[in-house]
Automatic annotation (TrEMBL):
The lineage of its organism: Bacteria, Pseudomonadati, Pseudomonadota, Alphaproteobacteria, Rhodobacterales. SUPFAM superfamilies: Winged helix' DNA-binding domain. This is MarR family transcriptional regulator. Residues 8-140 form the HTH marR-type domain. It comes from the Bacteria.
Length: 150
């Protein structure tokens, strides 16, 4: 390997590939529900945190506000979410899950759980908990802003 070459089997590549394959599998299986992985991520955030301003959703999903706005537009047209004005600031739009979302969330959760079970098949007992703890630590380590990132 030449100096500066990134090995294909590096941790970063493996994590990226695993995440990509999880998203791809979800896209295929959730198509019957009419959900994409991006839409699923948005809905999970709404269920975890409750109704949220669009700007906050963009931060949580790590996408540009204009991209989030387009995503919410498509989801509102499909009946997954609705925008309501903030009662304290009418310039702010709050995104709410709809009844359609609440009635479909368990089916989507079942699809996600099935995909995770497939992904983790064959791992030794306790490996899932260990891997989860390790990923949480990696996220924690990388979430701390350094001076060069400010």
């Amino acid at each position: 390997m030449s100096n500066g070459e990134i090995p294909h089997e590096s941790l970063g590549f493996l994590m990226h590939d695993a995440a990509r394959l999880l998203r791809k599998r979800f896209e295929v299986q959730a198509a019957e529900l009419g959900l994409t992985s991006a839409q699923w991520r948005l809905l999970v955030n709404l269920f975890k945190r409750g109704p949220l301003p669009q700007a906050r959703l963009a931060e949580l999903l790590e996408i540009e506000p204009i991209s989030l706005s387009r995503l919410v537009d498509r989801m509102a047209e499909a009946g997954w979410v609705e925008r309501r004005p903030d009662p304290n600031d009418r310039r702010i739009r709050i995104v709410h899950a709809t009844d359609k979302t609440r009635s479909t969330i368990s089916a989507a959760r079942h699809i996600a759980d099935s995909i995770y079970a497939d992904a983790l098949a064959g791992l030794p007992p306790g490996a899932t908990e260990t891997m989860t703890a390790m990923l949480r630590q990696i996220i924690c380590n990388l979430s701390q802003t350094t001076e060069t990132e400010k």
